[in-house]
Amino acid sequence: MKPTLQLKLSQQLKLTPQLQQSIRLLQLSTLELNQEVERIIQENPLLELNDGAEYGSVSQEESVDSSSTNSSDVRVGVDATTTVTESKGDAELNQNGDVDWYQDNSYSRDTREDEGEAQLAAKPQSLREYLYLQLSLSQITANDKSIVGLLIDSLDDDGYLSQDLDELIELLPSELEISLSDLQIALTSLQRLDPPGVGACNLKECLTIQLQTLPEDTPFLEQALLLVKQHLESLASRDFSQIKKLMHCDDECLRSAQSLIVNLNPRPGAAFSSIDTRYVVPDVIVTKVNDVWVADINPESMPRLSINHLYADILKHTRDVSTRRLAGQLNEAKWLIKNMHQRSDTIHRVSNAIVERQQQFFEHGEVAMRPMVLREIAEILGLHESTVSRVTTQKYMRTPRGIFELKYFFGSHVATDTGGACSATAIRALIKQLIKAENEKKPLSDNKISEVLGEQGIVVARRTVAKYRESMQILPANQRKTF
């Protein structure tokens, strides 16, 4: 067959490095963006952080290949950082374990350059350090102290001894010649230390130890001890009728005993645990202007970037092989600044579209949230749905009602009997309101809540009410009932 030449036209979608960078920057959170910028600045001498730079943009007409030294500054920073603290969840009996057994001791010394002194801060004391300090002051023998020390090292962060003594003794070297009775004596010594309840093997023992530290003449102490030792599970499930029948007590007696218990600390070591702190920089600030809620980019949410004029001037007057690498880095710097500005502009457009459609939320709160999906915003702004998804993930909006992730304003909807739709967020808020206003002696069942919402024109099945209630960590009716 005779070889021939043929022309064939085809279309291919290729992501340029600049477009890839734009997509990557868009999906980063503000903190991740700052970290990425710091990394790039370390690698590219043409970029620099300029605290005094004003907000600007790269002109659409400006050639990226140009060696012009006109800088394009994008203002953003990390000064206005909002701190959100995440602590451990509530323990049993709805106790959060926050007890002021310990206050952070910190100290500092004045910084004096001539003396070469740096400011120092004391490390927060841990539970083990606190227990070892008490142990060193106790009057028991050195051998007993060493055994108690072994138990202290076996405690978990909540102050519990999670291993049985039988299991623990098998892990100890035989040459130590420590018997089970030695461990039991040491455990008794440990459980006498502060905070009360430390060294317990379970919640029941922890609460019992704390009750036993109370004065003997404490009213209803005996009933509280009996309640913990024999009926703790029934108390947790709020089966008060069964408890009163088994303990032969009236409402006042049970209420007083319960009051003693709920004021105990189910996690005695939690006060010494480090708190996980997550820093959130709001990308957008919502304010009311002329009776209309509007969104503006937080001027402190991105780094202030500019072109290094020293290197740019070198490129302007020198064009040879030695500056070829700098020329490439200049182009990269300009692309980064342009992509940063584009990222900011896209977040601004999406945020304004969200605020425009959620005006009633900012006026009246969650109950007025309207149903909305990503596709709705994407069609209005002429963006791809995946772009809107990237914009709304890990981007935060500061409002008079609090700080919310942009993704918060999107969600499923439930039909109403008028043919409309109600946001799932609004339904959750209504359920919370109904439960908050209920008669605690006759709490509303999921079926009753469904009926009440139906009377308001919102068609919600009982199982849907149960799903929303559980997502808000609200107990079912039988466990919310009081006596």
Polypeptide structure, described:
The structure is a single chain. With 483 residues, this protein is an alpha+beta fold. Helices cover 44% and strands 9% of the residues. It folds into three domains: 17-77 and 280-402, no CATH class; 127-271, no CATH class; 412-480, Homeodomain-like (Arc Repressor Mutant, subunit A). Strands 5-4-7-8 form a four-stranded mixed beta sheet. A two-stranded antiparallel ribbon has the order 1-6. The termini are far apart. Residues 52-122 have low confidence and may be disordered.
In short:
The protein is of the alpha+beta class and 483 residues long. The protein has helices at 17-27, 30-43, 127-137, 142-153, 165-171, 180-190, 203-212, 221-236, 240-247, 251-262, 309-317, 324-357, 359-364, 374-381, 385-392, 424-436, 446-455, 462-471, 477-480, and strands at 47-49, 82-86, 276-280, 284-289, 292-297, 305-307, 396-399, 402-405, 413-415, 421-423.
